[in-house]
Design brief:
Immunoglobulin-like; 8-stranded mixed beta sheet; alpha+beta; 36 strands; 10-stranded mixed beta sheet; single chain
């Protein structure tokens, strides 16, 4: 409220009259089951069945399960739910402790493990990941390498001089960021050495650096075959001579001198290249000390040198960050392929692969503590899970504990219908009922749909569950090829059918999208199934629901599915309408606004034919006002559907 000190007009806005009930979800289906891929125990709201297949993989053949005895349940159930009208679906994959992620140990040429790559999620899908390692054709890029001590050497080499390379230093004491120009001691490779004006061979770059492991000179004949070699890495079959750097030395047989100041070459008198011969050189090129604002990088070992006074200091908390290229010759390309998805990483070692693979959709990588800095061996092509590597397993034998964990994962979500893929009332009925009761206590009411036990009518009649929030479904499904599925999968189809209907619509006599039913119930058996509270699919001008009932029992308040859904819808709506009033004034004006909001919601239900009528009163005594309480007394009359038509026919 405004404080009136300065003269003027003060307006107090009371917005209670604008409060309305929010939208209420009525067809959110949650399906819990086993799959060959995808995260375990994580609820995922799907965009459609195509995403379900992409994320959780295709189901195995029911009669020939991948593990030999436990068919996968999740995707098969999702397919039936979507096929019968489900649109908003939450999927939860569960797996037994036997579930495993396929892996592959990346090794160096000596057989040491550099990194272990593991499929991103457990399951046999990981066994289909193909890995190939080949010599890189492009340089590897190191991004964001950080150093807080030493500051003497980059983590990788040989560094490829490139304009993309960047090094910056964050000064810990001033928080200033210094960016440097980069200069290089580099390697000139396979240079065709030309003669200078004096007729001597002279390298193109002055200031040759004395690096015995790099510097190499080869004399070739007219056909390009080596005649003599000096220094490092001589061609096969050629004995290397010696490179001299002392200007006072005179080259003897099998010796060559490089003038370190002019890069001019001097051969032994009897070994100067003859007519038609040529000279090729690979050598390290030196560079002057770095000027202010420069960093000198030695490409062959990664050493970094700063101008005097510009080097970072560990004691000051300085941080060096470097991004640079590593030559292709010192890198490999690791490719991972699964179905249509391919990922490629150009890396110099196992540690860098681990960093890059953090963004992978296929794998997770862990570098080996002892050998992770080694270069992977090239010429590798293999599948995950082969040899001594761990094979993927689905954990398809998930039991009560795993399904209960999957239900717990959705216990705090707005869900209207719950399906336990592939499970029946005998094996998992109590688990599902426990979940339904616990979520009702937390104002997250929902209905469970589960298959009847067994495969025959007698088995269905033998169930022992009576619960107004649980629908038991039979019979099973017959596929066009003659194979059958148990009633658990019919339950998934029924859940999709319920989700597609408004809350007041009965499932009785509704057509359902199934290829066929495994068991045909005769009229007497149909009556028994109704009496035993089994929602039954029958063949009657197509496949239809015999009667849309819960397992509570004939004559009980919530024996009809629409009654249960209407009441749950009303509860969600009333909470949605009333919650915005919590914390507002408890006086007649606000209570009248609350009543008007509830009236609007309930009137909408009447107009939608979910209710035939209602009575509503919102009151509070003075004592209740003091206690912060409001009485909302509501009587609603749910709409009922026609289950029977009784005709009396008089003949004249």
């Amino acid at each position: 409220m405004s404080e009136m000190i300065v003269p003027g007009t003060y307006i107090d806005v009371r917005a209670e009259g604008l409060i309305s009930a929010g939208g209420v979800a009525t067809g959110v289906v949650a399906v819990v089951g086993t799959a060959r891929s995808g995260p375990v125990g994580t609820p995922i709201t799907l965009s459609g069945f195509s995403q379900a297949r992409e994320l959780f993989g295709l189901p195995d053949k029911y009669s020939i399960p991948e593990d030999g005895s436990n068919p996968l349940t999740l995707v098969r159930s999702l397919q039936l739910a979507y096929a019968n009208g489900a649109s908003t679906v939450v999927a939860v994959r569960v797996a037994s402790p036997r579930a495993a992620s396929a892996s592959y140990a990346l090794k160096d040429p000596a057989g040491n493990t550099l990194a272990v790559l593991t499929a991103a999620t457990p399951g046999t899908w990981g066994n289909d990941i193909q890995i190939s390692v080949s010599q890189a054709r492009t340089p590897a890029r190191i991004v964001g390498e950080k150093q807080t001590a030493s500051f003497a050497q980059l983590g990788y080499h040989s560094v490829l001089p490139n304009q993309q390379n960047r090094i910056q230093v964050l000064r810990g004491d001033t928080r200033r960021v210094d960016n440097f120009n980069l200069v290089y001691r580099f390697v000139a490779r396979d240079e065709a050495v030309a003669k200078n004006g004096g007729g001597s061979y002279q390298l193109a770059n002055p200031k040759v650096s004395t690096v015995a492991s790099i510097n190499s000179i080869v004399v070739l004949d007219g056909n390009g075959s080596p005649v003599r070699a000096y220094g490092a890495n001589p061609p096969s079959g050629v004995t290397a001579g010696t490179i001299l750097y002392d200007l006072a030395a005179t080259p003897a047989l099998n010796e060559i001198r490089i003038n370190p100041n002019t890069s001019e070459l001097a051969f032994a008198a009897t070994q100067a290249p003859a007519a038609g011969q040529s000279v090729v050189a690979t050598y390290a090129v030196d560079h002057a000390d770095p000027a202010p604002g420069e960093i000198l990088i030695t490409v062959w070992n990664g050493d970094i040198d700063f101008h005097a006074g510009e080097a970072p200091r560990a004691v000051a908390g300085d941080v060096l960050t470097a991004s640079y290229l590593v030559e292709a010759a010192d890198s490999v390309e690791v490719s991972l392929t699964h179905s249509q998805l391919k990922e490629s990483y150009v890396v110099p070692d196992g540690r860098s692969l681990t960093a890059l693979a953090a963004q992978s959709k296929l794998v997770r990588a862990v570098a080996d503590a002892g050998h992770g800095s080694g270069k992977p061996a090239p010429d590798v092509a293999a599948y995950f899970g082969t040899g001594s590597n761990v094979g993927g397993a689905n954990g398809a034998d998930a039991g009560e504990d795993e399904y209960a964990g999957g239900l717990e994962a959705i216990s705090n979500r707005v869900v209207n219908l719950v399906v336990l893929g592939g499970q029946d009332a005998r094996g998992m009925g109590s688990v599902l009922v426990g979940h339904l009761k616990s979520t009702e206590e937390t104002d997250l009411e929902r209905i469970g749909v589960i298959g009847a036990p067994g495969v025959e009518i007698a088995d269905f009649l033998g169930h022992s569950v009576a619960e107004g929030r649980l629908v038991i479904v039979g019979p099973g499904i017959r596929n066009p090829d003659g194979s059958t599925l148990p009633p658990a999968y019919t339950a998934a189809a029924v859940a999709g059918l319920i989700a597609a209907q408004s809350v007041q619509t009965s499932l009785t006599n509704k057509a359902i999208n199934l290829p066929g039913i495994a068991v045909e119930a005769n009229r007497g058996q149909q009556a028994q199934l109704i009496e035993r509270n089994v929602l039954t699919i029958v063949s009657r001008q197509g496949l239809r629901v015999l009667k849309g009932i819960t397992s509570e029992g004939v004559g009980q308040p919530f024996s009809a599915i629409p009654t249960r859904r209407i009441v749950d819808y009303a509860k969600y709506g009333v909470r949605s309408a009333a919650n915005p009033y919590i914390g507002r004034l408890n006086n007649s004006r606000v209570r009248a606004a609350l009543k008007a909001t509830l009236d609007a919601f309930l009137t909408g239900m009447v107009e939608d034919e979910a209710l035939t009528g209602y009575m509503l009163d919102v009151t509070a005594t003075r004592a209740q006002e003091i206690a912060g309480q409001v009485n909302v007394v509501m009587t609603i009359q749910p709409t009922f559907s026609i289950d029977f038509i009784r005709v009396v026919m008089t003949l004249q």
